[in-house]
Amino acid sequence: MRKNMKTTLTLSLLFINLNAYALTLFVGDTGVDFRHDKLKPVQGFNPSEIADNGIDEDRNQRKDDVSGWNFQDNNKDPFGYKREYSFTSKELRINKLYARYERGENLNNQDFETLRDAFNDAEFLEDYNYRNNISHGTHVAGIAAKGIKGLSIFSARHNGANPRDLFSLKNNKLNKMTEASIIEFAKEVAKYSEYRYLYTAESQADVYNGSYGYDFELIKRIIKSRFNPTGEVTDSQGKIFSKAYNESICRAVRKFKNTIFVFAAGNDKANNDSSPSLPSNVSEFCPNVISVAAVYKNKLANFSNYGKRTVDVAAPGVAILSSAPGNQMIYASGTSMAAPNVANLALRIKQANPALSGAEVKTIIVETVSKFSNLSDKIRSGGVINTERALSVAKESKTKSLKEALYAAKANFNNKGNGTISAAAPVMQRPSLYVMPMPEAL
Length: 442
What we know:
Layout: E1 23-29, E2 68-70, H1 89-102, H2 109-119, H3 122-145, E3 151-157, H4 163-166, H5 179-201, E4 207-210, H6 216-227, H7 235-253, E5 260-264, E6 289-296, E7 299-300, E8 313-316, E9 320-324, E10 328-332, H8 335-352, H9 358-367, E11 370-371, E12 383-384, H10 387-396, H11 402-415
């Protein structure tokens, strides 16, 4: 068992002795296909549950939740899709070609025509979107798992506060749209999505990755649908909802100090400081929640959300190669891909020093970034995650206080001339024609 794990059996402790001393990652997403060759070795197994016997041994009201739980269908299947989900040969060709396009590589006229025809073909796009949606969680898991030994991944396939559900979430006590009723509605929504975070945190997870979210316009549409006002929902009312939601979620997750929650900032080119994205903006309120923007070659990706106050760090998120269902590999772009790069680093930090809390892991990641002048007014840390620096501090923190380890490391960074780096020559990331859809969930 982990050194810091209580041995008392309680109903709230979901996974007793969860892969003792192993690293544990929960992927809250569209499901993870553990049949993939890259993910089979890291599939987590709950030692307190016997598979396929129809009995809830760990008494968490979820029978046979051996590798996580499918909240979408309320069953044990961590993936959950029945329809054909493998990409066709044409889709894989387009996927590779588009990755080259995004990276600014030279394409001939025929390549451009091939891309244009594909993205103007409604039938092609419908199927391609469907398979990208299905692939999302598997792709995210592959990024987070890359190169880490001793990792156990669990899937929390969500229906977490899906818009369709929230539109019908009614409370007869809340009929008139006032500030007080908006706050109460936000708390209702938080309770609706909270159970998934509690499922993760109470199982003693090291890291939770959430590459999903609501943009600000969708938040306002949900409020409008709930109260049906005569006029439009204002930005101020949307922010009231967002703040109340963030505070509610933070109260739930901050109790689980050993878990760090990693959220994607969003793909709307929006400033999250003024147009909140949920649950990403929870990071502003919670010490063990971190929000992630996407960069390409250390410059903000042209689709990425940002926020000097609300987005903590940036990580690579353009044309990232990772696993897809059907034992395939595909490229994808989005803050959804940047977030698991941070989750991967968080896991490595916990591996270097398991005694670190979630808040301390966040501090290390934020304080050891490579700073870039072009990110100084876009990202709270002003930089891109730096694995070498972060792991150096994590290892030092085993024999020093975290404050001392960071102080020594920063002095070393500065001695090497690695302060803020001025923007270099323009980096070519072509305008995005397509970004992998980020699941709409809270």
